[in-house]
Design brief:
Layout (H helix, E strand, L loop, with lengths): L11 H20 L9 H8 L6 H8 L3 H13 L3 E6 L2 E9 L1 H21 L5 H21 L1
Antiparallel strand pairs: 1-2
Amino acid sequence: MTRSAPDPSNVPSFLIKQVSRELSRLAETQLRPLGLGMASLPVLEAVRQGKATTQAELARLLRVEQPSMAQTLARLERDQLIRRSPDPQHPRAQRIELTLLALQRLPQAREILNEGNTRMLADFSVDETMRLTSFLQRLSANLDRTG
């Protein structure tokens, strides 16, 4: 007897991807006038928070390949959202700093993302939101452990 494939609307990984795609689509539309996108926000926030200051650190922190990070940084530099300068301790590395333009736009971008979360969770109680967050954190931890 042949098993039929499960209905995607009942598969957690499919639903997570679908929700992620929709949130990204909505956010991209609203971030575009600021000259920002979903791929650049984690980079800008990591630099703003002092979590990473070089391309290698950013790639490691955000779990992306070096070539992808290089492309993202090149776009951010072209758009005058970051500037690079030589790292005095590592001659081959460059330090990444946010420009005033990035610092001015990030609060607006965070507000756009907060509005998206509020919209997404509109019918959820505080307890449901906390449980959902906990479940998603556990899913992420499970995936981290399995490589």
